[in-house]
Amino acid sequence: MANRHNKTGRSRGTGRYVQLHHWLLNSVAYLSLSPAWRAVHVELVRLYNGGNNGRLALSVRVAANRCRIARNTAARAFVELQDRGFIELVTRGGFSLKTRHAAEWRLTHLPCHASGQLPHKSFMRWRPSEKQSAVSTRAATVANESQSADV
Fold first, then answer.
1. Residue 94 CB partners (closer than 8 Å, separation 6+)
2. CA-CA distance, 4 to 93, in Å (whole number)?
3. Would you call 50 helix, strand, or coil by DSSP?
4. Where are the domains of the chain?
């Protein structure tokens, strides 16, 4: 069996992983996201390597391919993630013959390495509008009634 620790007792050879904290997953903004929008968020977090926040390059086409969703759905996911405060656009993408580059994003729950900004976690302050909260309250009531009927 191979030695998995160096002489100081630290692990080596461990693979990269995506870290999603419970406080983020339990936020009202995250719980309001559709599964496709959550998948795009995970793809953006997957690009983070510990020193490139603010330079996370992900286009709508690549996000659609990786998440196996339509391009319009991926485009809406970026808009909703921005509206809820999970991501910010740092550099707008371009698709011309001279310069082809993907948009560059910043995750708001991590410090920005491009500009030096501290994390502001604006998604933690996001609340649904009156119309959205009425729909979610109605859906929760219907779900609770169906659960109590099964008992």
1. 100, 101
2. 42
3. coil
4. 22-141
List of residues 6+ apart from 5 with CB closer than 8 A: 11, 12
For residues 31 and 23, the answer to whether their CB atoms sit within 8 Å is no
Q: Which long-range contacts (CB under 8 A, 24 or more apart) does 64-68 make?
A: 67/36, 67/39, 67/40, 67/43
CA geometry: angle at 61 spanning 57 and 53, to 5°?
15
Query: How many Å apart are CA 2 and CA 94, to the nearest integer?
Result: 47
- pLDDT digit string (tens) for the chain, length 151 residues: 455 667 777 766 667 888 899 999 999 999 999 999 999 999 999 999 888 998 999 999 999 999 999 999 999 999 999 999 999 999 888 776 566 678 899 999 999 988 888 999 999 999 998 766 654 544 455 445 544 554 4
**Domain 22-141: which topology?**
Arc Repressor Mutant, subunit A (1.10.10)
